[in-house]
Predict the 3D structure of the following.
Amino acid sequence: MSRSILAFLVSALLCAAVPAAAQAPMQWQTGRAAAAIEARVERLIRQMTLEEKVGQLHLYGRREGFDYGEIRAGRIGNVMNFVDPAEVAAVQKAARESRLKIPLLIGLDAVHGVSTYFPLPLGQAATFNPALVEEAALWTGREARALGINWTFAPMVDMGRDPRWGRLLEGAGEDVFLSRIMAAARTRGYQAGGAAATVKHFVGYGAGEAGRDYNTAWIPAEQLHDIHLPPFRASIDAGALSVMAAFNSVNGVPATAHREMLTDLLRRNWGFRGLVVSDFGSIPELMAHGIAADEAEAARKALAAGIDIDMMGFVYSKHLAAEVRAGRAPIAQVDEAVRRVLRVKFHARMDEIADIDPRTAESALQSPPALDAARRAARESIILLENDGILPLDPARVRSVAVIGALSRPDQERVWTDPAGVPRKPIEAMDAALARLLGQGVRVAFQPGVSTYCGKEFGDRAAAIEAAAAADVIVAKLGEDCEFMGEGASRTRLTLPGVQDQLLDELIGTGKPVVLVLATGRPLVLSHLKGRVAAIVQTFHAGSEGRAAIAEVLTGAFNPSGKTPMSFPRSVGQIPVYYDHLPTGRPETPGRFRYESIFMDESNLPLYPFGFGLSYTRFGFSDLRIETPVVAAGGALTASVTVANLGGREGQEVAQLYIRQPMARISRPVRQLKGFQKIALKPGESRKVTFTVPATELGYHDAQGRYVVEPGRFEIHVGNSSLAELKGEFQLARPQGGR
Ligand code: GLC
């Protein structure tokens, strides 16, 4: 029986096994169900003591000596970081023993997997395959729910344009169109799987100056509304039940106390009905921000701004009841926050979820269909950046391969937002997968090269160089790991951490061709490697099945199709570098005249542009047709292009459509992605790809945050990266009777 049929059958059985309520996707109820929830919430508000109300606004993390009695007493209404089934069952039981039996929110950073883990979200974005990303989130939600977790702190949708920032890996990169689509896909997936989504970090966390974590963000209204807010709106429109506030300040106001964002925009303007949770301890941090003199004032300001739950800040639990009794915090604000928390719990039907059975909970983890989805996601997340022809490895030409790098082995990897303590069966190592795929005739040797998974010290250096020198081809799997990625991991040098660059130099020094496989949490600066290595394969930590998928790409069993979700800078000095920049008054010309907007010592172009990725075959784009040369106001652009597979291998290509409005009331980006389609073509096959772009997608926000669609001429570029060359244009007509 083929693996995919088996996977399907197991998946069907699994779905049957999952309790009904757990299987029902979490979503906002409507009609009578919604009305019944409102009535129930009001009844509970009337019954609750002030302490019980404050308990619902408190999120407490697992730790040694956790007091379950606090749940029974109604003083803890939400918990996080419980993954051991016995402990989860204990907190669920404690909630049932409380006076009002309100279900707990049981939260976890289930971001790119739980036991089965998928490529980092940045790698998932590189697939340009929203359906696959949604499936990855579905399995993440399912495995979380299997452990009794009903709330995930994901999707993170912060825009990432500065690779010095360590948390790019959690988002979808630099492009707002791609980020919106991935945000919605992940939200749907998590909630369909059984975990309420928390879209984060609201807002502007990725815009911290210099890419320094938690740093100040100054964001003009135009950029706030055009770039940073749309992915949040997409997640909320997809039904996200909660939002997490950001650590940073936005234009001088800490996001955790930003009433204009949290209440005026999010709730009044967008109509968001869910709850807002602070980030970890971000409420007391208002004192460090300098807008609260003490914890009590921090609690008051956060509550007034619209923060419903205090994540591990302990200021709501310590001060809110006293502040209400002293008349310094209105009980109406407490009640409104409690309403929003209870609404989420009951709309998500958390009160109908059966407690988990610790004896069987883990049996649902790493199921064949989940691992199958992880394999497919890993494959499509892999980006081929350079290839001098050495790939795919040909067993007829290559008789020996030296795999160098501790990251080739599963037990050597620690990636950010990888929930600790979740059981995981070992997964195939890359060298073993290579040996399996290359067959008996090819000898595959492995040497870690570095002593720890962070690449900070050499391992048996001589053995690594000796193995490399003895092989026909060296496959070096190097990258960022553990503390070099994620939160608190901003870097000013985008190099391979520790001794890895030195190790790579020595591998190159053997004179044997080096295939560099990267596992990083961000684009690194790779300029110095061009021409020195035979190939560069980029992964953003490809997950449980990543090593096997990489081996499939290296041997040609899978033709790579990943595309860069971010521009790769040539140097740190070039940052920020992103494709949808404004033209300036002195755009770079081929002559690079001194007095143009250029660097004296660097090109303006990134080393690898957004949307770029090589294949083992070659695709051609032709016959761009603008079906609607004049688009009516409120209408849509329809354009088509023919994509052909001109090479000898089947492969997938991502056809991308970019638009530009060269003339408008304000300066507009030189290009913006407004459509993409991923298609698989056999050798010699061609297909017509049609794009439809609503006129409403062609506008921008002005300085007052108002959305403007200006009639006029638009240019189109279509191709397989943000450097697309096939060009056309259309007119957007004025509204009837409009000026
Ligand atoms: C962290 C992160 C946030 C995460 C939370 C809980 O500080 O900023 O993304 O969800 O704490 O772990």
Remarks:
- The chain has 21 helices and 26 strands.
- Residues 10-22 have pLDDT under 50 and may be disordered.
